[in-house]
């Protein structure tokens, strides 16, 4: 059973995150030492330098030959279930849209495994649980965050190319502004529509952007090194390790600092309002764990491993996904639900742990 001392360890691990967030908020709102323009530059620093190095650093230390692939498969099945349901949402409901599907997927499935998950599950179940959560973090960085980045780039490239094909006077909202107005032919007769870019030109633009974005290959380079190092049993030279660590250690802190800057630029701390915040909490603490329970049972997980899979799915939203949402301008205000989620996550996760313990 988890003790008050274990809960205190989790609180100690989480408290520094809120110090960094508070410093970012105060730098803009109270002390006014950082301007809105500088906030954008800081977010670029986090997105393109500190987070890629942070991802690379923890990925290269994992042992790929000792991974629990059944546990990883359960997580993958749950994410596929959520992705399929969200992809069908715009087709089945007038209130759905693909942009909201992307945001909902991020809120319900991408977790803050390293910062919150590691100390929490270690206190609950021990070192073996910590190792499994780290493994999921690596897979999340390599597969799911890379796919999220691909979707963001696809949306950005599609909107940009469609806008170039449209007339300069087009205006409106996420996809209405990229539709081309009708153009008359030389005889003043029927209307024509400006041509849209081909699928291949769109893919070319997206892959070029991904190739220039360090987030898309930091985890891949890291896991490649991990395979080589664990296969032939050698370590990274200390001079290279130190060069990576000096910036990667700032990754999580700078991400929280950037989130504080974003909060300070909004009129309200929870910029998305109470309704969307509640929606985000339902996705995070109910929909995500429910999908994970289905996936875990489907692949045959039982006992404490099944409980761990459900609990890790209820961890707060990934900070990296918030940084991406802000960088690409897709519902970053809704992603501030991660702030409220981190505040309420501890009692929710302990409640999950107690209930699952009684059920076993």
UniProtKB/TrEMBL annotation:
- Source domain of life: Eukaryota
Q: What does this protein do?
A: May act as a component of the auxin efflux carrier.
What are the protein's UniProt keywords?
Answer: Auxin signaling pathway, Membrane, Transmembrane, Transmembrane helix, Transport
Q: What's the chief localization of this chain?
A: membrane
Per the record, the GO terms for biological process are: auxin polar transport; auxin-activated signaling pathway
Its source organism is Musa troglodytarum
Entry protein name: Auxin efflux carrier component
GO cellular component, as recorded: endoplasmic reticulum; plasma membrane
In the record, the note on similarity to other proteins reads: Belongs to the auxin efflux carrier (TC 2.A.69.1) family.
Q: How does it sit in the membrane?
A: Multi-pass membrane protein
What does the record give under GO molecular function? auxin efflux transmembrane transporter activity
């Amino acid at each position: 059973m988890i003790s008050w001392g274990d809960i205190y360890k989790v609180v100690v691990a989480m408290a520094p995150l809120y110090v960094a967030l508070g410093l970012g908020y105060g730098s803009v709102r109270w002390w006014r030492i950082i301007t809105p323009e500088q906030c954008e530059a800081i977010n670029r620093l986090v997105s393109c330098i500190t987070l890629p190095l942070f991802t690379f650093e923890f990925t290269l230390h994992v042992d790929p030959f000792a991974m629990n692939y059944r546990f990883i498969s359960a997580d993958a099945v749950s994410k596929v279930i959520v992705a399929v349901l969200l992809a069908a949402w715009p087709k089945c409901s007038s209130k759905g849209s693909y942009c909201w599907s992307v945001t909902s997927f991020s809120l319900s499935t991408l977790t803050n495994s390293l910062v919150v998950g590691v100390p929490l599950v270690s206190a609950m179940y021990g070192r073996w649980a910590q190792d499994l959560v780290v493994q999921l973090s690596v897979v999340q960085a390599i597969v799911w965050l890379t796919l999220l980045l691909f979707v963001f780039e696809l949306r950005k490239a599609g909107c940009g190319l469609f806008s170039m094909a449209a007339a300069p006077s087009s205006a409106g909202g996420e996809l209405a502004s990229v539709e081309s107005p009708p153009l008359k032919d030389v005889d003043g007769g029927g209307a024509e529509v400006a041509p849209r870019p081909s699928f291949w030109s769109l893919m070319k633009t997206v892959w070029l952007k991904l190739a220039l974005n360090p987030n898309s290959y930091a985890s891949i380079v890291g896991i490649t090194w991990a395979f080589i190092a664990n296969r032939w049993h050698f370590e990274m030279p200390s001079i290279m390790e130190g060069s990576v660590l000096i910036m990667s250690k700032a990754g999580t802190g700078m991400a929280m600092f950037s989130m504080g800057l974003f909060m300070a630029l909004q009129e309200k701390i929870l910029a998305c309002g109470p309704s969307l915040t509640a929606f985000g909490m339902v996705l995070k603490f109910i929909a995500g764990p429910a999908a994970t329970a289905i996936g875990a049972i489907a692949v045959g997980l039982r006992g404490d491993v099944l409980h761990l899979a459900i609990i890790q799915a209820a961890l707060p939203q990934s900070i990296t996904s918030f940084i991406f949402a802000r960088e690409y301008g897709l519902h970053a205000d809704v992603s501030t639900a991660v702030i409220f989620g981190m505040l309420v996550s501890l009692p929710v996760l302990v409640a999950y742990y107690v209930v699952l313990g009684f059920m076993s």
